């Protein structure tokens, strides 16, 4: 499985060979393509380390993923290597996946922002470029020009396993050409198993080695004793020992150089897949495994089961699965728009087919959340459409639904996997189309008509969008009488065993300023009756009998509470107050700019923290780890009391203080004061993250 390091959790693969990716940090002098053999391997390891490890960097990716239709910001980390004097950094595409912003940390601890130069998901490679405050020439390492590794050669894996920067492990090459297909797998499923909607590893075989890697090593270099980058570490085995897999250095170098030059990789596409001759009884050629419907290959007459013997007159053969990637790469590197000749064998009959190469289509479309609808959608590519039997359809694929959001309560409700075709009668083929049609509240305030496809059916739904920050105002609850204490039920049997004179409800807490507290009640008092009517606990776990008796009384009425204190009778005459609002009844605000869930500061919040009634603020219910609040280290349970030196008394006050702070534009950070446990803390919101536009 592909997996870069995340601070919150590690996700394991669910298929037979559970794979996870690895990732790393830093800068040095260009490594030569070769080095003289030294007498001691230990010396050579030290020299290779000193050449490359200083230019290995840790990559911090603030990424935006989508969960249940909502955009969720988090922080992941990976590794990379500086490969040019201009500060270009080679890494894995999955390290930069869904990235909003990037920073790179060098071996000396220096941290720089970085921009994404280009990605190539089919090879799982990407290039970032560090952005120094002033022009700078970077030290860098070099890719090997040829793959000349042999089983048993010593290799070094460098990176930041589990976020531990400047780490290095040593191992040996197990197999320089390995396809991740076990003896029990069908090689035809190989690509799809490596990535849903984004197959990878199509054009190369992996280097298998046993240098230990872990989440965080992804994108880091595999280095030989000459100091060359012979591979890019990408996958590792969770179970079964130190099995690690790297993209071959020469292949990675070609992709990286192309990404630096153009920002993308151009490949030819014909609409068919190949597989090896293994298990077919054939001895020459390569088998056509699948042909896409409507593709150039199908139109030219190519069929699944055909045996390709030559490409443009050059014989080809793939006896084993490991031989297939090189042939697929050869086809992909043919000129787009030019005819290609295939010599084939079909049931013993030789024939010749001419194809014209098209440009490789995108495997996966752009994805984003559309908050007014409470869902996330992805642009449907032809490849995605074929996989879902949406051939020829154009629209936006629903990838997630927010529970309780507009899409979830539409009539009828939308569901993950639906394909939205039109909104308000307007076709929506791109994300920009949806924004143009429904990005603002409808002028007439009426629900929008959504036309969508579900499997083979085309349906209609009515949806009422919601715009802006989401404020939840709970329905008002009927006010009830309140005595201001918490109690523990004491049954007759428990009272007997404890040696108490009577049963009832023992006071366990007295709230400040409460009616019973003002009347002199104390913790430990045993309340036995209200207005002369005895109190009996139904069991030893529920205090509902007491609270219900109090709630049945009128707010503002006088009541007499009979009690025992140290066995002596007491009497408290109180005027019952209105019960404070429970936490569930307080307003909440999902503040998009902070990517945080906030709540009003209530009576029980102050009581739990032993704060005075005059204490104001806003309670943090939750934060996204990669959002501005999360990156400022704000935590659930914090109470925000000031922002940019302005007191925060309530939810509107916080939003207003943030508006003012952003408008002033003074400094790179905005101070935030919070109450956390017994302390008052100062945190800092970085203006950089607050001004980043959410995709």
TrEMBL record:
An annotated Gene Ontology molecular function: serine-type endopeptidase activity
Annotated PDZ domain residues: 259-317, 356-437, 484-543, 588-678
InterPro entries membership: Chloro_Bact_Ser_Proteases (IPR051201), PDZ (IPR001478), PDZ_6 (IPR041489), PDZ_sf (IPR036034), Peptidase_S1_PA (IPR009003), Peptidase_S1_PA_chymotrypsin (IPR043504), Peptidase_S1C (IPR001940)
Superkingdom of source: Bacteria
Gene3D superfamilies: 2.30.42.10, Trypsin-like serine proteases
GO biological process: proteolysis
Signal peptide: 1-28
UniProt KW keywords: Hydrolase, Protease, Signal
Keyword Signal applies: yes
Family: Belongs to the peptidase S1C family.
Name listed for the protein in its UniProt record: PDZ domain-containing protein
């Amino acid at each position: 499985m592909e997996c870069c390091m995340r601070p919150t959790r590690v996700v394991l693969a669910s298929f037979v060979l559970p794979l996870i990716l690895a990732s790393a940090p830093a800068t040095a002098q260009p490594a030569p393509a070769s080095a003289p053999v030294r007498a001691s391997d230990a010396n050579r390891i030290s020299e290779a380390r000193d050449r490359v490890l200083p230019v290995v960097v840790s990559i911090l990716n603030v990424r935006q993923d989508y969960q249940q239709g909502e955009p969720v910001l988090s922080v992941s980390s990976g590794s990379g290597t500086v490969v040019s004097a201009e500060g270009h950094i080679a890494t894995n595409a999955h390290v930069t996946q869904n990235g909003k912003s990037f920073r790179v940390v060098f071996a000396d601890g220096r941290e720089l922002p970085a921009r994404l130069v280009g990605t190539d998901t089919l090879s799982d490679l990407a290039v970032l470029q560090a952005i120094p405050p002033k022009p700078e020439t970077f030290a860098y390492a070099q890719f090997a020009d040829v793959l000349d590794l042999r089983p048993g050669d010593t290799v070094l894996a460098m990176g930041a396993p589990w976020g531990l920067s400047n780490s290095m492990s040593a191992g040996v090459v197990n197999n320089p050409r390995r396809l991740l297909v076990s003896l029990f797998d069908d090689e035809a499923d190989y690509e799809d198993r490596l990535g849903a909607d984004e197959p990878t590893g199509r054009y190369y075989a992996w280097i298998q080695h046993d240098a230990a890697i872990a989440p965080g090593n992804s994108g880091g270099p595999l280095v030989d004793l000459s100091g060359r980058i012979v591979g890019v570490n990408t996958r590792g085995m969770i179970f079964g020992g130190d099995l690690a897999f790297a993209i071959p250095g020469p292949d990675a170098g070609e992709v990286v150089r192309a990404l630096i030059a153009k920002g993308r990789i151009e490949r030819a596409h014909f609409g068919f897949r190949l597989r090896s001759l293994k298990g077919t009884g054939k001895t020459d050629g390569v088998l056509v495994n699948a042909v896409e419907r409507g593709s150039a290959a199908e139109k030219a007459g190519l069929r699944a089961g055909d045996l390709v013997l030559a490409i443009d007159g050059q014989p080809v053969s793939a006896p084993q699965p490991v031989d297939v990637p090189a042939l697929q790469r050869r086809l992909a590197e043919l000129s787009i728009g030019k005819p290609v000749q295939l010599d084939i064998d079909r049931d013993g009959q030789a024939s010749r087919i001419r194809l014209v190469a098209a440009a490789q289509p995108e495997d996966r479309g752009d994805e984003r959340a559309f908050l007014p609808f409470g869902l996330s959608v992805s642009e449907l590519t032809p490849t995605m459409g074929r996989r879902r039997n949406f051939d020829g359809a154009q629209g936006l694929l629903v990838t997630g639904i927010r529970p309780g959001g507009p899409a979830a309560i539409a009539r009828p409700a939308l569901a993950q996997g639906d394909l939205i075709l039109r909104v308000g009668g307007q076709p929506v083929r791109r994300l920009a189309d949806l924004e143009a049609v429904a990005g603002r509240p409808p002028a007439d305030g009426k629900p929008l008509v959504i036309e969508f496809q579900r499997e083979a059916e085309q349906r209609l739904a009515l949806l009422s969008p919601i715009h802006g920050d989401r404020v939840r105002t709970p329905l008002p609850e009927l006010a009830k009488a309140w005595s201001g204490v918490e109690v523990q039920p004491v049954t007759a049997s428990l009272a007997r065993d404890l040696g108490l004179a009577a049963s009832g409800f023992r006071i366990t807490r007295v709230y400040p300023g409460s009616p019973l507290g003002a009347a002199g009640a104390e913790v430990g008092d045993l309340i036995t009756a209200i207005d002369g009517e005895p109190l009996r606990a139904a069991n030893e776990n529920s205090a509902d009998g007491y609270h219900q008796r109090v709630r049945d009384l009128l707010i503002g009425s006088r009541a007499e509470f009979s009690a025992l204190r140290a066995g002596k009778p007491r009497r408290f005459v109180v005027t019952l107050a209105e019960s404070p609002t429970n936490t569930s009844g307080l307003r909440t605000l999902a503040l998009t700019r902070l990517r945080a869930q906030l709540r009003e500061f209530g009576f029980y919040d102050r009581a739990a923290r032993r704060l005075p009634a005059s204490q104001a603020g806003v309670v943090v219910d939750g934060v996204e780890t990669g959002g501005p609040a999360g990156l400022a280290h704000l935590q659930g349970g914090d109470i925000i009391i000031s922002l940019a030196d302005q007191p925060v008394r309530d939810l509107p006050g916080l939003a207003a203080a943030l508006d003012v702070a952003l408008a002033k534009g003074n400094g790179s950070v905005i101070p935030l004061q919070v109450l956390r446990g017994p302390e008052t803390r100062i945190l800092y919101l970085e203006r950089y993250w607050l001004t980043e536009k959410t995709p």
